[in-house]
Protein backbone atom coordinates (compact mmCIF):
# COMPACT_ATOMS: atom_id res chain seq x y z
CA UNK A 1 0.00 0.00 0.00
CA UNK A 2 2.66 2.52 1.04
CA UNK A 3 4.83 1.36 -1.84
CA UNK A 4 2.07 2.22 -4.24
CA UNK A 5 1.61 5.60 -2.57
CA UNK A 6 5.30 6.40 -2.90
CA UNK A 7 5.18 5.45 -6.55
CA UNK A 8 2.20 7.73 -7.09
CA UNK A 9 3.97 10.61 -5.35
CA UNK A 10 7.07 10.12 -7.50
CA UNK A 11 4.95 10.04 -10.66
CA UNK A 12 3.17 13.22 -9.56
CA UNK A 13 6.45 14.98 -8.80
CA UNK A 14 7.78 13.90 -12.19
CA UNK A 15 4.73 15.29 -14.00
CA UNK A 16 5.02 18.66 -12.30
CA UNK A 17 8.79 18.77 -12.87
CA UNK A 18 8.27 18.12 -16.59
CA UNK A 19 5.61 20.85 -16.74
CA UNK A 20 7.64 23.37 -14.71
CA UNK A 21 10.76 22.86 -16.78
CA UNK A 22 9.01 22.60 -20.15
CA UNK A 23 10.22 25.97 -21.51
CA UNK A 24 13.81 24.80 -20.88
CA UNK A 25 13.71 21.29 -22.34
CA UNK A 26 11.29 21.92 -25.18
CA UNK A 27 13.44 24.32 -27.16
CA UNK A 28 16.53 22.04 -27.40
CA UNK A 29 14.18 19.25 -28.54
CA UNK A 30 12.96 21.37 -31.43
CA UNK A 31 9.79 22.70 -29.82
CA UNK A 32 8.92 26.20 -28.79
CA UNK A 33 7.38 27.64 -25.64
CA UNK A 34 4.08 28.64 -27.22
CA UNK A 35 3.54 25.00 -28.19
CA UNK A 36 3.84 24.04 -24.53
CA UNK A 37 1.33 26.74 -23.64
CA UNK A 38 -1.15 25.34 -26.16
CA UNK A 39 -0.70 21.83 -24.79
CA UNK A 40 -1.47 23.07 -21.29
CA UNK A 41 -4.60 24.94 -22.36
CA UNK A 42 -6.05 22.19 -24.56
CA UNK A 43 -4.93 19.61 -22.00
CA UNK A 44 -6.91 21.46 -19.34
CA UNK A 45 -9.90 21.38 -21.69
CA UNK A 46 -9.52 17.63 -22.25
CA UNK A 47 -9.13 17.02 -18.52
CA UNK A 48 -12.27 19.11 -17.86
CA UNK A 49 -14.23 17.01 -20.33
CA UNK A 50 -12.79 13.87 -18.79
CA UNK A 51 -13.89 15.00 -15.33
CA UNK A 52 -17.34 14.22 -16.72
CA UNK A 53 -16.55 11.45 -19.22
CA UNK A 54 -14.00 9.42 -17.29
CA UNK A 55 -15.21 9.96 -13.73
CA UNK A 56 -18.99 10.33 -13.99
CA UNK A 57 -19.32 8.19 -17.10
CA UNK A 58 -21.42 10.54 -19.25
CA UNK A 59 -20.24 11.70 -22.66
CA UNK A 60 -20.73 15.33 -23.61
CA UNK A 61 -20.18 16.02 -27.29
CA UNK A 62 -20.80 19.73 -26.96
CA UNK A 63 -18.26 20.82 -24.41
CA UNK A 64 -16.54 23.12 -26.88
CA UNK A 65 -19.52 25.44 -26.35
CA UNK A 66 -18.35 26.19 -22.81
CA UNK A 67 -14.74 26.35 -23.99
CA UNK A 68 -15.74 28.89 -26.64
CA UNK A 69 -17.95 30.84 -24.25
CA UNK A 70 -14.97 31.10 -21.89
CA UNK A 71 -12.90 32.44 -24.77
CA UNK A 72 -15.53 34.98 -25.86
CA UNK A 73 -16.14 36.00 -22.23
CA UNK A 74 -12.46 36.76 -21.76
CA UNK A 75 -12.06 38.40 -25.18
CA UNK A 76 -15.13 40.63 -24.89
CA UNK A 77 -14.09 41.73 -21.41
CA UNK A 78 -10.64 42.76 -22.63
CA UNK A 79 -12.07 44.46 -25.68
CA UNK A 80 -14.99 46.36 -24.19
CA UNK A 81 -14.96 46.29 -20.39
CA UNK A 82 -11.63 46.20 -18.62
CA UNK A 83 -7.97 45.93 -19.57
CA UNK A 84 -7.25 43.29 -16.97
CA UNK A 85 -6.14 39.72 -17.57
CA UNK A 86 -7.49 38.36 -14.24
CA UNK A 87 -10.88 40.02 -14.78
CA UNK A 88 -11.02 38.59 -18.29
CA UNK A 89 -10.32 35.13 -16.88
CA UNK A 90 -13.06 35.48 -14.27
CA UNK A 91 -15.58 36.79 -16.80
CA UNK A 92 -14.83 33.93 -19.18
CA UNK A 93 -15.12 31.30 -16.44
CA UNK A 94 -18.41 32.73 -15.22
CA UNK A 95 -19.93 33.04 -18.69
CA UNK A 96 -19.10 29.48 -19.74
CA UNK A 97 -19.74 27.96 -16.33
CA UNK A 98 -23.10 29.60 -15.73
CA UNK A 99 -24.39 28.85 -19.25
CA UNK A 100 -23.27 25.24 -18.80
CA UNK A 101 -24.97 24.93 -15.41
CA UNK A 102 -28.27 26.30 -16.71
CA UNK A 103 -28.33 24.10 -19.81
CA UNK A 104 -27.16 21.21 -17.69
CA UNK A 105 -30.49 21.31 -15.86
CA UNK A 106 -32.14 20.24 -19.13
CA UNK A 107 -29.36 17.97 -20.37
CA UNK A 108 -29.05 15.67 -17.34
CA UNK A 109 -32.56 14.33 -17.83
CA UNK A 110 -31.21 12.31 -20.77
CA UNK A 111 -28.73 9.49 -20.68
CA UNK A 112 -26.42 7.69 -23.08
CA UNK A 113 -26.59 8.64 -26.74
CA UNK A 114 -29.47 11.07 -26.09
CA UNK A 115 -27.31 12.93 -23.59
CA UNK A 116 -24.58 13.25 -26.22
CA UNK A 117 -27.08 14.42 -28.87
CA UNK A 118 -28.59 17.08 -26.61
CA UNK A 119 -25.14 18.39 -25.68
CA UNK A 120 -24.27 18.72 -29.38
CA UNK A 121 -27.53 20.54 -30.09
CA UNK A 122 -27.06 23.08 -27.32
CA UNK A 123 -23.41 23.50 -28.29
CA UNK A 124 -24.34 24.32 -31.88
CA UNK A 125 -26.79 26.98 -30.65
CA UNK A 126 -23.87 28.96 -29.25
CA UNK A 127 -21.84 28.38 -32.40
CA UNK A 128 -24.56 29.93 -34.54
CA UNK A 129 -25.07 32.82 -32.14
CA UNK A 130 -21.35 33.64 -32.31
CA UNK A 131 -21.40 33.14 -36.07
CA UNK A 132 -24.40 35.41 -36.72
CA UNK A 133 -23.98 38.17 -34.16
CA UNK A 134 -21.21 39.88 -36.11
CA UNK A 135 -21.51 43.30 -34.46
CA UNK A 136 -20.54 41.84 -31.09
CA UNK A 137 -18.52 38.72 -31.87
CA UNK A 138 -16.98 39.52 -35.24
CA UNK A 139 -18.93 36.66 -36.79
CA UNK A 140 -17.02 34.27 -39.01
CA UNK A 141 -13.85 36.39 -38.79
CA UNK A 142 -13.72 35.86 -35.06
CA UNK A 143 -13.24 38.36 -32.26
CA UNK A 144 -10.12 40.47 -32.75
CA UNK A 145 -8.75 43.69 -31.41
CA UNK A 146 -7.94 42.67 -27.87
CA UNK A 147 -4.76 41.59 -26.19
CA UNK A 148 -3.83 40.02 -22.88
CA UNK A 149 -2.48 42.56 -20.40
CA UNK A 150 0.55 42.52 -18.10
CA UNK A 151 -0.20 41.24 -14.60
CA UNK A 152 -0.21 44.28 -12.34
CA UNK A 153 0.60 43.56 -8.71
CA UNK A 154 0.85 47.25 -7.73
CA UNK A 155 4.48 47.13 -6.68
CA UNK A 156 5.62 45.30 -9.79
CA UNK A 157 4.31 44.06 -13.09
CA UNK A 158 4.83 40.75 -14.82
CA UNK A 159 5.06 41.00 -18.57
CA UNK A 160 3.07 38.08 -19.96
CA UNK A 161 2.39 39.89 -23.22
CA UNK A 162 5.70 39.58 -25.03
CA UNK A 163 7.63 37.32 -22.64
CA UNK A 164 6.59 33.84 -23.72
CA UNK A 165 8.15 32.08 -20.76
CA UNK A 166 6.38 34.34 -18.27
CA UNK A 167 3.10 33.69 -20.07
CA UNK A 168 3.73 29.94 -20.00
CA UNK A 169 4.17 30.10 -16.24
CA UNK A 170 1.02 32.18 -15.87
CA UNK A 171 -0.91 29.53 -17.81
CA UNK A 172 0.73 26.78 -15.79
CA UNK A 173 -0.33 28.58 -12.59
CA UNK A 174 -3.97 28.71 -13.75
CA UNK A 175 -3.72 25.09 -14.95
CA UNK A 176 -2.37 24.02 -11.55
CA UNK A 177 -5.22 25.70 -9.67
CA UNK A 178 -7.90 24.13 -11.91
CA UNK A 179 -6.30 20.69 -11.89
CA UNK A 180 -5.71 20.90 -8.14
CA UNK A 181 -9.39 21.61 -7.52
CA UNK A 182 -10.34 18.77 -9.87
CA UNK A 183 -8.11 16.30 -8.05
CA UNK A 184 -9.38 17.50 -4.69
CA UNK A 185 -13.03 17.02 -5.72
CA UNK A 186 -12.36 13.55 -7.11
CA UNK A 187 -10.92 12.43 -3.77
CA UNK A 188 -13.86 13.82 -1.79
CA UNK A 189 -17.05 12.00 -0.79
CA UNK A 190 -18.78 13.84 -3.63
CA UNK A 191 -16.13 12.67 -6.10
CA UNK A 192 -16.67 9.11 -4.93
CA UNK A 193 -20.38 9.41 -5.69
CA UNK A 194 -19.41 10.47 -9.25
CA UNK A 195 -17.35 7.31 -9.63
CA UNK A 196 -20.19 5.30 -8.11
CA UNK A 197 -22.56 6.65 -10.78
CA UNK A 198 -20.03 5.77 -13.49
CA UNK A 199 -19.66 2.25 -12.15
CA UNK A 200 -23.32 1.44 -11.59
CA UNK A 201 -26.10 3.95 -11.80
CA UNK A 202 -28.81 1.69 -10.42
CA UNK A 203 -26.74 0.72 -7.42
CA UNK A 204 -25.97 4.39 -6.79
CA UNK A 205 -29.65 5.26 -6.82
CA UNK A 206 -30.36 2.45 -4.37
CA UNK A 207 -27.66 3.72 -2.03
CA UNK A 208 -29.60 6.97 -1.75
CA UNK A 209 -27.73 9.11 -4.29
CA UNK A 210 -30.01 11.43 -6.31
CA UNK A 211 -28.24 10.52 -9.53
CA UNK A 212 -29.55 13.33 -11.77
CA UNK A 213 -28.59 16.01 -9.26
CA UNK A 214 -25.09 14.61 -8.89
CA UNK A 215 -24.59 14.36 -12.64
CA UNK A 216 -25.77 17.96 -12.92
CA UNK A 217 -23.23 19.13 -10.36
CA UNK A 218 -20.43 17.21 -12.10
CA UNK A 219 -21.56 18.63 -15.46
CA UNK A 220 -21.60 22.18 -14.11
CA UNK A 221 -18.18 21.86 -12.49
CA UNK A 222 -16.83 20.42 -15.71
CA UNK A 223 -18.22 23.43 -17.62
CA UNK A 224 -16.52 25.86 -15.23
CA UNK A 225 -13.19 24.07 -15.75
CA UNK A 226 -13.78 23.99 -19.49
CA UNK A 227 -14.54 27.73 -19.52
CA UNK A 228 -11.28 28.44 -17.70
CA UNK A 229 -9.45 26.57 -20.46
CA UNK A 230 -11.38 28.59 -23.04
CA UNK A 231 -10.54 31.89 -21.36
CA UNK A 232 -6.85 30.94 -21.38
CA UNK A 233 -7.16 29.99 -25.05
CA UNK A 234 -8.39 33.51 -25.88
CA UNK A 235 -5.37 34.91 -24.03
CA UNK A 236 -3.00 32.57 -25.89
CA UNK A 237 -4.21 33.68 -29.32
CA UNK A 238 -5.49 37.19 -28.52
CA UNK A 239 -8.37 35.98 -30.62
CA UNK A 240 -11.67 34.12 -30.17
CA UNK A 241 -13.03 32.03 -33.00
CA UNK A 242 -16.56 30.67 -33.53
CA UNK A 243 -14.91 27.37 -34.52
CA UNK A 244 -13.86 27.11 -30.86
CA UNK A 245 -17.56 26.55 -30.10
CA UNK A 246 -18.17 24.06 -32.89
CA UNK A 247 -18.82 20.39 -32.26
CA UNK A 248 -15.70 19.44 -34.20
CA UNK A 249 -13.76 21.16 -31.42
CA UNK A 250 -15.77 19.10 -28.90
CA UNK A 251 -14.75 16.03 -30.90
CA UNK A 252 -11.09 17.04 -30.63
CA UNK A 253 -11.40 17.13 -26.85
CA UNK A 254 -13.05 13.70 -26.83
CA UNK A 255 -10.22 12.37 -29.04
CA UNK A 256 -7.58 13.80 -26.69
CA UNK A 257 -9.28 12.32 -23.63
CA UNK A 258 -9.86 8.88 -25.14
CA UNK A 259 -6.44 8.73 -26.82
CA UNK A 260 -4.64 9.69 -23.61
CA UNK A 261 -6.73 7.41 -21.40
CA UNK A 262 -10.03 8.47 -19.94
CA UNK A 263 -9.83 6.30 -16.84
CA UNK A 264 -6.70 8.10 -15.67
CA UNK A 265 -6.56 11.61 -14.29
CA UNK A 266 -3.54 12.71 -16.37
CA UNK A 267 -4.34 10.71 -19.50
CA UNK A 268 -6.14 13.55 -21.32
CA UNK A 269 -3.11 15.83 -20.84
CA UNK A 270 -0.94 13.24 -22.56
CA UNK A 271 -3.58 12.92 -25.26
CA UNK A 272 -3.56 16.69 -25.74
CA UNK A 273 0.24 16.74 -25.90
CA UNK A 274 0.27 14.09 -28.64
CA UNK A 275 -2.61 15.75 -30.48
CA UNK A 276 -1.21 19.28 -30.41
CA UNK A 277 2.37 18.28 -31.19
CA UNK A 278 1.39 16.04 -34.08
CA UNK A 279 -1.00 18.66 -35.40
CA UNK A 280 1.77 21.24 -35.26
CA UNK A 281 4.32 18.98 -36.91
CA UNK A 282 2.09 17.26 -39.48
CA UNK A 283 0.28 20.38 -40.60
CA UNK A 284 3.60 21.83 -41.72
CA UNK A 285 4.22 18.68 -43.80
CA UNK A 286 0.81 17.90 -45.25
CA UNK A 287 -2.63 19.47 -45.42
CA UNK A 288 -4.09 16.05 -44.72
CA UNK A 289 -2.70 16.01 -41.18
CA UNK A 290 -6.11 15.13 -39.74
CA UNK A 291 -6.18 11.76 -41.51
CA UNK A 292 -2.90 10.76 -39.89
CA UNK A 293 -4.14 11.86 -36.51
CA UNK A 294 -7.36 9.98 -37.14
CA UNK A 295 -5.40 6.86 -38.04
CA UNK A 296 -3.43 7.12 -34.82
CA UNK A 297 -6.67 7.56 -32.87
CA UNK A 298 -8.17 4.43 -34.43
CA UNK A 299 -5.02 2.43 -33.67
CA UNK A 300 -5.00 3.57 -30.05
CA UNK A 301 -8.66 2.73 -29.56
CA UNK A 302 -8.19 -0.69 -31.19
CA UNK A 303 -4.99 -1.74 -29.48
CA UNK A 304 -4.84 0.29 -26.24
CA UNK A 305 -8.45 0.58 -25.09
CA UNK A 306 -7.25 2.23 -21.89
CA UNK A 307 -5.44 4.92 -23.86
CA UNK A 308 -1.77 5.75 -24.15
CA UNK A 309 -1.32 6.36 -20.44
CA UNK A 310 -3.20 3.20 -19.55
CA UNK A 311 -0.86 1.30 -21.88
CA UNK A 312 2.26 2.90 -20.38
CA UNK A 313 1.10 2.11 -16.86
CA UNK A 314 0.37 -1.50 -17.72
CA UNK A 315 3.67 -2.13 -19.49
CA UNK A 316 5.52 -0.64 -16.52
CA UNK A 317 3.74 -2.80 -13.97
CA UNK B 1 -47.91 -9.55 17.82
CA UNK B 2 -50.03 -6.61 18.95
CA UNK B 3 -47.24 -4.73 20.74
CA UNK B 4 -45.08 -4.86 17.61
CA UNK B 5 -44.67 -1.79 15.45
CA UNK B 6 -45.15 -2.14 11.73
CA UNK B 7 -42.11 -0.97 9.76
CA UNK B 8 -43.84 -1.44 6.43
CA UNK B 9 -47.57 -1.19 5.70
CA UNK B 10 -48.73 -1.84 2.17
CA UNK B 11 -52.41 -1.12 1.53
CA UNK B 12 -54.17 -2.47 -1.54
CA UNK B 13 -51.47 -1.67 -4.08
CA UNK B 14 -52.10 -2.35 -7.74
CA UNK B 15 -49.68 -1.91 -10.61
CA UNK B 16 -50.79 -1.96 -14.22
CA UNK B 17 -48.58 -1.93 -17.30
CA UNK B 18 -51.06 -1.16 -20.06
CA UNK B 19 -53.50 -4.06 -20.05
CA UNK B 20 -51.33 -6.22 -17.83
CA UNK B 21 -52.07 -6.13 -14.13
CA UNK B 22 -48.74 -7.16 -12.62
CA UNK B 23 -49.76 -6.65 -9.00
CA UNK B 24 -53.45 -6.72 -8.03
CA UNK B 25 -54.73 -5.29 -4.77
CA UNK B 26 -51.98 -6.63 -2.51
CA UNK B 27 -51.74 -5.70 1.17
CA UNK B 28 -48.93 -6.62 3.53
CA UNK B 29 -47.73 -5.51 6.96
CA UNK B 30 -44.20 -6.20 8.12
CA UNK B 31 -43.51 -5.87 11.84
CA UNK B 32 -40.23 -4.66 13.29
CA UNK B 33 -37.71 -7.48 13.54
CA UNK B 34 -39.77 -9.77 11.34
CA UNK B 35 -38.51 -11.81 8.40
CA UNK B 36 -41.08 -12.09 5.68
CA UNK B 37 -40.54 -14.20 2.57
CA UNK B 38 -42.38 -13.67 -0.69
CA UNK B 39 -42.74 -16.72 -2.88
CA UNK B 40 -44.64 -17.51 -6.03
CA UNK B 41 -44.21 -19.00 -9.49
CA UNK B 42 -42.35 -17.11 -12.23
CA UNK B 43 -44.30 -14.11 -13.40
CA UNK B 44 -46.33 -13.93 -10.19
CA UNK B 45 -45.35 -10.27 -9.75
CA UNK B 46 -42.79 -10.70 -6.96
CA UNK B 47 -40.15 -8.43 -8.43
CA UNK B 48 -42.75 -5.86 -9.52
CA UNK B 49 -44.02 -5.88 -5.95
CA UNK B 50 -40.45 -5.31 -4.73
CA UNK B 51 -39.99 -2.48 -7.21
CA UNK B 52 -43.13 -0.85 -5.82
CA UNK B 53 -41.81 -1.07 -2.26
CA UNK B 54 -38.39 0.34 -3.18
CA UNK B 55 -39.75 3.08 -5.42
CA UNK B 56 -38.61 1.94 -8.83
CA UNK B 57 -42.01 3.09 -10.06
CA UNK B 58 -45.15 4.29 -8.26
CA UNK B 59 -48.21 2.04 -7.86
CA UNK B 60 -51.27 2.64 -10.05
CA UNK B 61 -53.35 2.70 -6.88
CA UNK B 62 -52.93 1.93 -3.20
CA UNK B 63 -50.63 3.30 -0.51
CA UNK B 64 -47.28 2.37 1.03
CA UNK B 65 -46.31 3.51 4.52
CA UNK B 66 -42.83 3.19 5.95
CA UNK B 67 -42.10 3.84 9.64
CA UNK B 68 -45.60 5.29 9.88
CA UNK B 69 -45.19 7.79 7.02
CA UNK B 70 -46.68 7.74 3.58
CA UNK B 71 -43.94 7.10 1.01
CA UNK B 72 -46.13 6.11 -1.94
CA UNK B 73 -44.89 8.95 -4.15
CA UNK B 74 -41.32 9.23 -2.89
CA UNK B 75 -38.37 8.54 -5.20
CA UNK B 76 -35.95 5.71 -4.64
CA UNK B 77 -33.19 7.78 -3.08
CA UNK B 78 -35.66 9.44 -0.71
CA UNK B 79 -36.84 6.03 0.45
CA UNK B 80 -33.25 4.93 0.92
CA UNK B 81 -32.46 7.99 3.00
CA UNK B 82 -35.43 7.08 5.24
CA UNK B 83 -33.88 3.71 5.93
CA UNK B 84 -34.81 1.26 3.18
CA UNK B 85 -32.03 -0.80 1.58
CA UNK B 86 -32.24 -3.27 -1.26
CA UNK B 87 -30.20 -5.91 -3.05
CA UNK B 88 -30.95 -7.25 -6.52
CA UNK B 89 -31.54 -10.60 -8.14
CA UNK B 90 -28.57 -9.86 -10.41
CA UNK B 91 -25.91 -8.44 -8.11
CA UNK B 92 -25.52 -4.67 -8.44
CA UNK B 93 -22.09 -3.55 -7.31
CA UNK B 94 -19.25 -1.23 -8.34
CA UNK B 95 -17.04 -3.87 -10.01
CA UNK B 96 -13.91 -1.79 -10.55
CA UNK B 97 -13.72 -0.59 -6.94
CA UNK B 98 -12.42 -2.52 -3.96
CA UNK B 99 -14.69 -4.13 -1.39
CA UNK B 100 -13.81 -1.35 1.04
CA UNK B 101 -14.52 1.41 -1.48
CA UNK B 102 -17.87 -0.14 -2.41
CA UNK B 103 -19.07 -0.13 1.15
CA UNK B 104 -17.51 3.25 1.94
CA UNK B 105 -19.68 4.97 -0.67
CA UNK B 106 -22.76 3.53 1.05
CA UNK B 107 -21.55 4.63 4.48
CA UNK B 108 -20.71 8.15 3.32
CA UNK B 109 -24.02 8.66 1.58
CA UNK B 110 -25.91 7.33 4.61
CA UNK B 111 -23.95 9.71 6.88
CA UNK B 112 -25.13 12.63 4.78
CA UNK B 113 -21.67 13.36 3.32
CA UNK B 114 -22.55 12.82 -0.33
CA UNK B 115 -22.16 16.50 -1.30
CA UNK B 116 -19.20 17.21 0.96
CA UNK B 117 -15.96 18.35 -0.68
CA UNK B 118 -14.03 16.97 2.29
CA UNK B 119 -14.49 15.14 5.58
CA UNK B 120 -12.39 15.57 8.70
CA UNK B 121 -10.38 12.89 10.48
CA UNK B 122 -13.04 12.06 13.06
CA UNK B 123 -15.69 11.69 10.37
CA UNK B 124 -13.41 9.56 8.23
CA UNK B 125 -12.66 7.34 11.24
CA UNK B 126 -16.36 6.94 11.93
CA UNK B 127 -16.95 5.97 8.28
CA UNK B 128 -14.08 3.51 8.51
CA UNK B 129 -15.61 1.91 11.60
CA UNK B 130 -18.99 1.65 9.93
CA UNK B 131 -17.51 0.00 6.84
CA UNK B 132 -15.55 -2.50 8.90
CA UNK B 133 -18.60 -3.36 11.00
CA UNK B 134 -20.62 -4.06 7.87
CA UNK B 135 -17.81 -6.15 6.36
CA UNK B 136 -17.43 -8.12 9.57
CA UNK B 137 -21.14 -8.92 9.60
CA UNK B 138 -20.87 -10.50 6.15
CA UNK B 139 -17.43 -12.08 6.85
CA UNK B 140 -15.58 -10.15 4.15
CA UNK B 141 -13.15 -8.44 6.52
CA UNK B 142 -10.16 -10.30 5.04
CA UNK B 143 -10.95 -9.23 1.47
CA UNK B 144 -11.29 -5.47 1.89
CA UNK B 145 -8.64 -4.56 -0.71
CA UNK B 146 -9.83 -6.94 -3.42
CA UNK B 147 -11.70 -5.59 -6.43
CA UNK B 148 -15.34 -6.60 -6.10
CA UNK B 149 -15.49 -7.58 -9.76
CA UNK B 150 -12.86 -10.26 -9.13
CA UNK B 151 -14.63 -11.94 -6.22
CA UNK B 152 -16.61 -15.18 -6.37
CA UNK B 153 -20.34 -14.84 -6.91
CA UNK B 154 -21.20 -15.55 -3.28
CA UNK B 155 -18.73 -12.98 -2.04
CA UNK B 156 -20.08 -10.38 -4.48
CA UNK B 157 -23.53 -10.99 -3.09
CA UNK B 158 -22.14 -10.65 0.44
CA UNK B 159 -20.49 -7.35 -0.59
CA UNK B 160 -23.80 -6.11 -1.94
CA UNK B 161 -25.46 -7.01 1.34
CA UNK B 162 -22.65 -5.23 3.22
CA UNK B 163 -23.39 -2.08 1.20
CA UNK B 164 -27.02 -2.33 2.21
CA UNK B 165 -26.02 -2.85 5.86
CA UNK B 166 -23.71 0.16 5.82
CA UNK B 167 -26.82 2.26 5.24
CA UNK B 168 -27.98 1.09 8.71
CA UNK B 169 -31.43 0.41 7.30
CA UNK B 170 -34.71 -0.16 9.17
CA UNK B 171 -35.79 -2.49 6.42
CA UNK B 172 -33.73 -4.79 4.24
CA UNK B 173 -35.18 -5.94 0.92
CA UNK B 174 -33.39 -8.95 -0.58
CA UNK B 175 -34.39 -9.99 -4.09
CA UNK B 176 -33.49 -13.68 -4.52
CA UNK B 177 -30.29 -13.56 -2.49
CA UNK B 178 -29.33 -17.12 -3.46
CA UNK B 179 -30.13 -16.83 -7.18
CA UNK B 180 -27.61 -18.61 -9.39
CA UNK B 181 -25.62 -20.06 -6.51
CA UNK B 182 -24.31 -23.52 -5.82
CA UNK B 183 -25.15 -25.41 -2.64
CA UNK B 184 -22.12 -24.21 -0.73
CA UNK B 185 -22.74 -20.54 -1.52
CA UNK B 186 -26.47 -20.87 -0.90
CA UNK B 187 -25.66 -22.27 2.51
CA UNK B 188 -23.28 -19.37 3.28
CA UNK B 189 -25.77 -16.71 2.27
CA UNK B 190 -28.59 -18.44 4.15
CA UNK B 191 -26.46 -18.53 7.28
CA UNK B 192 -25.63 -14.85 6.77
CA UNK B 193 -29.29 -13.84 6.43
CA UNK B 194 -30.19 -15.92 9.44
CA UNK B 195 -27.50 -14.14 11.49
CA UNK B 196 -28.73 -10.74 10.32
CA UNK B 197 -32.22 -11.66 11.41
CA UNK B 198 -31.65 -13.59 14.63
CA UNK B 199 -28.54 -11.86 16.00
CA UNK B 200 -28.69 -8.35 14.57
CA UNK B 201 -32.47 -8.12 14.56
CA UNK B 202 -32.89 -6.69 11.08
CA UNK B 203 -36.34 -6.44 9.58
CA UNK B 204 -36.12 -8.33 6.30
CA UNK B 205 -38.38 -8.92 3.32
CA UNK B 206 -37.00 -11.37 0.80
CA UNK B 207 -38.01 -12.98 -2.44
CA UNK B 208 -36.75 -16.51 -2.74
CA UNK B 209 -37.14 -19.49 -5.02
CA UNK B 210 -35.32 -22.05 -2.93
CA UNK B 211 -37.99 -23.58 -0.70
CA UNK B 212 -35.43 -25.01 1.73
CA UNK B 213 -34.20 -21.47 2.32
CA UNK B 214 -37.67 -20.01 2.72
CA UNK B 215 -39.04 -22.61 5.12
CA UNK B 216 -35.80 -22.54 7.04
CA UNK B 217 -35.59 -18.78 7.51
CA UNK B 218 -38.88 -16.99 7.38
CA UNK B 219 -41.22 -16.05 10.23
CA UNK B 220 -43.94 -15.53 7.70
CA UNK B 221 -44.49 -16.48 4.08
CA UNK B 222 -46.57 -14.60 1.52
CA UNK B 223 -47.58 -16.43 -1.63
CA UNK B 224 -48.16 -14.36 -4.76
CA UNK B 225 -49.85 -15.85 -7.78
CA UNK B 226 -50.78 -13.95 -10.94
CA UNK B 227 -50.30 -10.68 -9.10
CA UNK B 228 -52.64 -11.62 -6.25
CA UNK B 229 -51.84 -12.43 -2.65
CA UNK B 230 -52.87 -16.05 -2.47
CA UNK B 231 -52.06 -16.70 1.17
CA UNK B 232 -50.04 -15.42 4.13
CA UNK B 233 -48.96 -17.30 7.21
CA UNK B 234 -46.27 -19.10 9.14
CA UNK B 235 -44.26 -21.72 7.23
CA UNK B 236 -46.39 -24.44 8.83
CA UNK B 237 -49.65 -22.80 7.82
CA UNK B 238 -48.43 -22.28 4.26
CA UNK B 239 -47.22 -25.86 3.97
CA UNK B 240 -50.67 -27.04 5.10
CA UNK B 241 -52.63 -24.62 2.92
CA UNK B 242 -54.48 -26.47 0.19
CA UNK B 243 -54.90 -23.53 -2.19
CA UNK B 244 -51.18 -22.94 -2.10
CA UNK B 245 -50.47 -26.59 -2.67
CA UNK B 246 -52.72 -26.63 -5.65
CA UNK B 247 -51.39 -23.44 -7.17
CA UNK B 248 -47.76 -23.60 -6.41
CA UNK B 249 -46.22 -26.34 -4.37
CA UNK B 250 -47.91 -28.90 -6.53
CA UNK B 251 -48.39 -32.49 -5.48
CA UNK B 252 -44.88 -32.74 -4.14
CA UNK B 253 -45.78 -30.91 -0.93
Kindly describe this structure.
The complex is a heterodimer of chains A (317) and B (253). Chain A has a single domain, classed as ABC transporter involved in vitamin B12 uptake, BtuC, CATH 1.10.3470. Helices cover 73% and strands 1% of the residues of chain A. Chain A has helices at 2-20, 22-26, 33-53, 64-81, 85-107, 113-132, 134-137, 164-186, 189-199, 201-205, 211-237, 247-260, 267-282, 289-303, 307-316, and strands at residues 151-152, 157-158. A two-stranded antiparallel sheet of chain A has the order 1-2. The mean pLDDT of chain A is 92. With 253 residues, chain B is α/β, with parallel strands linked by helices. Chain B folds into two domains: 1-83 and 170-253, 3-Layer(aba) Sandwich (Rossmann fold), CATH 3.40.50.300; 93-168, no CATH class. Chain B has a six-stranded mixed sheet, with helices on both faces. A four-stranded antiparallel sheet of chain B has the order 2-1-4-5, covered by helices on one side. In chain B, strand 7 (171-175), helix 6 (183-198) and strand 8 form a beta-alpha-beta unit. The mean pLDDT of chain B is 91. The interface between A and B is medium-sized, with 24 and 32 residues.
Tell me what the CATH architecture of chain A is. Answer: Orthogonal Bundle
- What is the CATH class of chain A? Mainly Alpha
Shape of chain A: globular
Proportion of strand residues of chain A: under 5%
| DSSP strand tally of chain B | 10
What is the string of SSEs of chain B from the N terminus onward?
EEEHEEHEHHHEHEHEEHH
Number of helical regions of chain A: 15
Question: What structural class is derived from the secondary structure elements of chain A?
Answer: mainly alpha
What is CATH's topology name of chain A?
Answer: ABC transporter involved in vitamin B12 uptake, BtuC
Share of β-strand residues of chain B: 15-25%
Number of helices, where a helix is a run of at least 4 consecutive DSSP H or I residues of chain B: 9
Name of the CATH homologous superfamily of the largest domain in chain B: P-loop containing nucleotide triphosphate hydrolases
CATH topology of the largest domain in chain B: Rossmann fold
Percent helix of chain B, as a range, is 25-40%
Give the CA-based shape of chain B.
globular
User: Count of DSSP E strands of chain A?
Assistant: 2
Task: Give, in order, the helices and strands of chain A.
Answer: HHHHHHHEEHHHHHHHH
Amino acid sequence: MSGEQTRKLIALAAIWAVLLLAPYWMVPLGGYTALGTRVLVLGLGAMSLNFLLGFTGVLSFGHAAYFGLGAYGAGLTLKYLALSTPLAMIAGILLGGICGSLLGLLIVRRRGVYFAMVTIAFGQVFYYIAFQWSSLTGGDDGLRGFSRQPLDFGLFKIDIVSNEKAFYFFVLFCFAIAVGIMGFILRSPFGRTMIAIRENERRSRFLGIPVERHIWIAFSLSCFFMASAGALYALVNNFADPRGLHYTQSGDFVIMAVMGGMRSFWGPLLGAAVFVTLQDYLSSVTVNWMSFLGLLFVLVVLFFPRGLLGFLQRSKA
Amino acid sequence: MSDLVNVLEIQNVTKRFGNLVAVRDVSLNVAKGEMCAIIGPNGAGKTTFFNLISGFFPPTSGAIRFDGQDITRLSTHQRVSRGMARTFQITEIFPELTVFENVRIAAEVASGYRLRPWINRAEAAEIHRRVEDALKLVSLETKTDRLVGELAHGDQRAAEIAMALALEPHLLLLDEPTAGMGDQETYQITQLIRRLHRDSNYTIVLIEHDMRVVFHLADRICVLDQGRMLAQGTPKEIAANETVQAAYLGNAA
